[in-house]
Automatic annotation (TrEMBL):
<dbReference type="Pfam" id="PF01906">
    <property type="entry name" value="YbjQ_1"/>
</dbReference>
<dbReference type="InterPro" id="IPR035439">
    <property type="entry name" value="UPF0145_dom_sf"/>
</dbReference>
<dbReference type="InterPro" id="IPR002765">
    <property type="entry name" value="UPF0145_YbjQ-like"/>
</dbReference>
<comment type="similarity">
    <text>Belongs to the UPF0145 family.</text>
</comment>
<protein>
    <recommendedName>
        <fullName>UPF0145 protein SGCZBJ_20640</fullName>
    </recommendedName>
</protein>
Length: 106
């Protein structure tokens, strides 16, 4: 499935717009990731546990969006947008949403 943040796919004609598709992923922040992120913040560097969790959540959200587009018979999803949001008590959960427009291409 072709996905693009642009409103079209280069060198391909859009012949039908099928509608908005989306996917969501909510992942809880694990206590050990929190602990190691705190240590990283003190000594400097990157918070690898959080980065991995963000990548996993993003991949899940994108796959759910693509699966919905496939069910609608789409060839591509254009105008893809990713949103990140902290949720829950003490922002202990992370939600990633992927949304775009499912289209048929020539």
């Amino acid at each position: 499935m072709i996905t693009s943040t642009t409103p079209y796919v280069a060198e391909r004609e859009t012949v039908a717009t099928l509608g908005v598709v989306s996917g969501e992923a909510i992942i809880g922040a694990h206590i050990f990731r929190d602990l190691f992120a705190g240590i990283t913040n003190i000594i400097g560097g990157r918070a690898g546990g959080y980065e991995k969790a963000l990548r996993e959540a993003r991949d899940i959200a994108l796959q759910e969006m693509i699966d919905e587009a496939r069910r609608q018979g789409a060839d591509a999803v254009v105008g893809v947008d990713l949103d990140y949001e902290a949720l829950g008590a003490d922002n202990g959960m992370l939600m990633v949403t992927a949304a775009g427009t499912a289209v048929k291409l020539r």
